Amino acid sequence: MNLLTVILVAYLIGSLPITAFYSKKGFRRDLSSRSAAGFRREPLLSVGMEMGKGALAALLGLVLHGWTGAAFASIAVVLGQIYPVFTGFRGGRGAAVSAGALLIMSPLLVLIGIGIYWALLFVTRYRSISMVSAVICVMVLTLVLFPELYVILVVFGLGSLVLLRYAGSVRRWRKGTEPPFRWRGLGRWR
């Protein structure tokens, strides 16, 4: 399988609307909604499945074309999540898929990023600010911890895509219209 085919397969993996397959509201409802209905009910399952898409694509690229293939597949799977062909190029924000792809390339960075996200979420109670801050911290830490060029390029590419998708949420936070995070028990939050 050549590199271009790996990139195309990774994009298609990212485009799959997997939350629609297990949602109680059905496939059609999830495709019309910007946020998957299943995410509110089963957030850990949804995030895990999205991370699995990213990890699968990066692993496929790594096995078939080494680190270069993993880097290209990581970018492609996130682009597939953000601009999915199956839902009219309207998709998610790509954070969980990015974390899954990065899990193959650098598990330490993913653990640090998740830790920063949760710590900031407890402090700020705003998901967008927590995510943006965690992404920026991971981007800076990449420069300090990992001198390999492919990791730096992938982290900055994925981070830039995620930051672009969260720009609207940050604007809503600045205006005071973004709702704060509310705990409803483990595995159930809004």
Automatic annotation (TrEMBL):
First and last residue of the signal peptide: none
One GO MF term attached to the UniProt entry: acyl-phosphate glycerol-3-phosphate acyltransferase activity
InterPro entries attached to this UniProt entry: G3P_acylTferase_PlsY
GO CC entries: plasma membrane
Entry keyword set: Cell membrane, Lipid biosynthesis, Lipid metabolism, Membrane, Phospholipid biosynthesis, Phospholipid metabolism, Transferase, Transmembrane, Transmembrane helix
Transmembrane segments: 6-23, 101-120, 132-164
One Gene Ontology biological process: phospholipid biosynthetic process
UniProt protein name: Uncharacterized protein
Species, as recorded: Paludifilum halophilum
